[in-house]
Amino acid sequence: MHRAAALAALLVLAGASPATAQVVTLRNLAFGTITSGTTTSVSKTSASAAQWRFTGIFPLGGSFTLTLPTTLTGPGTAIPITFSATDGQRSTTNNPATGSSFNPNATQTVGIVVLSRSEFVWLGASLSPPLNQTPGTYSATVVLTVAGML
Prior knowledge:
It is a single chain. The protein is mainly β. The chain has one domain: Immunoglobulin-like (Sandwich). The protein has no helices and 15 strands. The strands form 3 sheets. Strands 1, 3, 6, 11, 14 and 15 form a 6-stranded mixed beta sheet that branches. Strands 2-5-12-9-10 form a 5-stranded antiparallel beta sheet, with no helix packed on it. The protein starts with a strand and ends with a strand.
């Protein structure tokens, strides 16, 4: 069995409302060593899930969107990556257990926030490497965009 290490490198992009929103990547989504021909999943609440924190003031509300890849690229055949309708988690505390599940494939709304507050976002996913996958490091980029409605 061939083994391939996979890591989804994550990039953060702050959207509209530059003076009122700050986005920080706290952790990248990491699959570690995977086995070719076997689907491997990372739970949104695990220590290997991606995690961001954004802080801001959204006087008329706002939104955040994740731009998700469909494959990880590396030295061999691209590895398909999927994000299910429940692979996202969000909370106003730094604890995914206190949060609520969301579909990372859809835009999420942020309620009206007059005083600055933090929102934490976690992301899990599944990889399905083909049989005889070339060993190596595979990666992709996820973009988190936060927008305020002014």
